[in-house]
Write a structure and sequence with these properties.
Radius of gyration of chain A: 21 Å
Strand content of chain B: 25-35%
Shape of chain A: globular
Number of helices of chain A: 8
Largest sheet of chain A: 6 strands, mixed
Number of domains of chain A: 3
Radius of gyration of chain B: 14 Å
CATH topology of the largest domain in chain A: FAD/NAD(P)-binding domain
Order of helices and strands of chain A: EHEEHEHEHEEHEEEEEHEEEHEEEH
Helix content of chain A: 25-40%
Largest interface: A-B, 16 and 14 residues
Oligomer: heterodimer
Order of helices and strands of chain B: EEHEEEEEH
CATH architecture of the largest domain in chain A: 3-Layer(bba) Sandwich
Distance between the termini of chain B: 39 Å
CATH class of chain B: Alpha Beta
Helix content of chain B: 10-25%
Number of domains of chain B: 1
CATH architecture of chain B: Roll
CATH superfamily of the largest domain in chain A: FAD/NAD(P)-binding domain
Strand content of chain A: 15-25%
Structural class of chain B: alpha/beta
Shape of chain B: globular
Number of strands of chain A: 18
Largest sheet of chain B: 7 strands, mixed
Number of helices of chain B: 2
Distance between the termini of chain A: 39 Å
């Protein structure tokens, strides 16, 4: 019988997936969620379930992502069966589209390197004429691209809802509007208390810090070095249109409801989640260069959202060395990695399995090397 | 069930009128009002069908937020009737579901 309790700080896509993975396997789980005042990276996620080009600088991450997208189909079905909520997964391949031969060649080299180093990540380069058989509406500026058979898309907001619904069905406690300010460790009893800014406390045997941009500060209190940086993504959405884009691309995707989501920027602007005319114009122009007929589509919204990133862009999954039972997670790709977060990270952090060997490279200690230089990738 | 419109435009002396065409039928409506107001007061019922289930919809918020009043105006699909003023000679049709990209491309050439 399992009597231990797990507290997950953070109820966004990452925290909710991990919590769901633990709760659905019988653990007693409590999720402390900051609520709608949080920056909610889930709102800024472009919604791609994407393997191609991930992990160009870290084969372990390419493999991790490969395994994650391989589990998505089953995970989608599981959530649908348990909650009735459709996470919107469509995973029948996706395109990266390039505007110059030079760009396309760079892409080919990168994908070949990743497949060579990580294995099992096939791709196909296509000329524009071949791409047109799949995406007839691409414009003359698209000169070529790559095709990844395992790429796809989901609906980030429905996914978040499915995870929360699954958590409730598994008996987990989701407590909203909690701004966790401190993690206290009782070493003698091996217990942790998450303390909110207004003084309330929740005590459990294990604790996972998955609070997005708030991870760094809380993790340091339990001896985990988890530096986070913010990146802002602006995205645009058009009115709903009849289906014309059968496959998602890196520049635009058509949702199941018909809207075309255009994205996204990657900006380093601190804690500003606003929009700028300059970036909106850049996104719109790029989308029209890709699909010229979009010039006549109306945009109904543009918004910005902040997402957490580590200095090298790859995730941190780590247990504390000094406070065993405390874990920290920083991850940018909450949609792509949702299934593996639930299936592998949740059971590990919940204490049901040993540390999976393939998460060892994702230790935050890599950022303590003063001589290392990091190039953002993800 | 009432067949009379629930909406009316107050009559003003000397009010300029314009002629618009809706689904092939000519309507005389006051100048300076929105397409949605003109069609509501002319009792034309549903102006569009919804995108997912094809159910009939009519103008609702009248202030550009709800997108229930979408109509095709002068060949351009899915325009917000409540945000567009009537103009003499305007040709309006019901909007059936989502516009197609091709429809936007051909209709959009007329400008506006």
């Amino acid at each position: 019988m399992i009597s231990k309790q797990l507290t997950v700080v953070g109820g966004g896509l990452v925290g909710a997936a991990i919590a769901y993975g633990a709760a659905s396997r019988g653990l007693s789980v409590r999720v402390l969620d900051q609520g709608d005042t949080a920056f909610r990276a889930s709102r800024g996620n472009f919604g791609l379930v994407w393997l191609s080009s991930k992990g160009g600088g870290m084969p372990e991450y390419a493999r991790w992502t490969r395994d994650a997208v391989g589990q998505w189909g089953g995970f989608h079905q599981e959530l649908l069966d348990r909650t009735g909520v459709d996470s919107g997964l469509i995973q029948k391949g996706g395109f990266w589209l390039g505007f110059s031969q030079e760009e396309v060649q760079k892409r080919a080299n990168l994908l070949a390197k990743i497949d060579r180093e990580a294995g099992g990540i096939p791709f196909r380069m296509m000329e524009a004429s071949e791409i047109r058989q799949y995406l007839p509406d691409i414009g003359p500026k698209v000169v070529g691209g790559s095709w990844g058979a395992q790429d796809g898309m989901a609906n980030p907001l429905f996914l978040l809802r499915a995870l929360h619904s699954g958590l409730k069905k598994a008996g987990a406690d989701i407590i909203s509007g909690i701004d966790v300010a401190a993690i206290e460790h009782d070493a003698a009893k091996g217990r942790f208390t998450a303390r909110s800014r207004d003084g309330q406390g929740w005590t459990s045997d294990r604790i996972v810090i998955a609070a997005g941009l708030g991870v760094g500060e809380l993790a340091s209190q339990v001896g985990i070095h988890a530096p986070t940086v913010t990146t802002r993504g602006q995205v645009l959405i058009t009115e709903r249109l009849k289906p014309f884009m059968d496959y998602p691309t890196n520049k635009a995707r058509q949702t199941a409801e018909g809207s075309v989501q255009i994205g996204s920027t990657t900006e380093d602007v601190g804690l500003d989640d606003g929009t700028t005319v300059e970036k909106i114009e850049w996104l719109a122009r790029r989308a029209v260069d890709t699909f010229p007929a979009l010039a006549n589509a109306r945009l109904v919204r543009a918004w910005g959202a902040l997402r957490p990133l580590t200095p090298d862009g790859y995730p941190i999954y780590q247990e504390s060395g000094t406070c065993p039972g405390a874990f920290a997670v920083v991850c940018h790709s909450g949609v792509t990695l949702a299934a593996i977060h639930a299936n592998v990270i949740g059971p590990w952090m919940g204490g049901l399995t040993d540390a999976p060997p393939d998460v060892a490279p994702f230790n935050g200690k890599r950022f303590l090397d003063k001589n290392a230089r990091f190039v953002g990738d993800h | 069930m009432t067949t009379e419109t629930l909406f009316s435009i107050p009559k003003k002396a000397g009010q300029a009128m314009v002629r618009i065409e809706f689904e092939g039928e000519t309507l005389h409506v006051p100048d300076g009002i929105s397409v949605a107001a003109a069609l509501l007061s002319s009792s034309r019922g549903a102006l569009r069908t919804s995108i997912v289930k094809g159910t009939p919809r009519a103008p609702y918020c009248m202030m550009g937020v709800c997108f229930e009043c979408l109509v095709e105006i002068d060949g351009i699909p899915a325009r917000q009737g409540c945000m567009t003023l009537v103009r003499d000679g305007m040709i309006i049709r019901r909007q059936s579901g989502a516009p197609s990209l091709e429809g936007l491309a051909s209709g959009g050439k007329n400008g506006e």
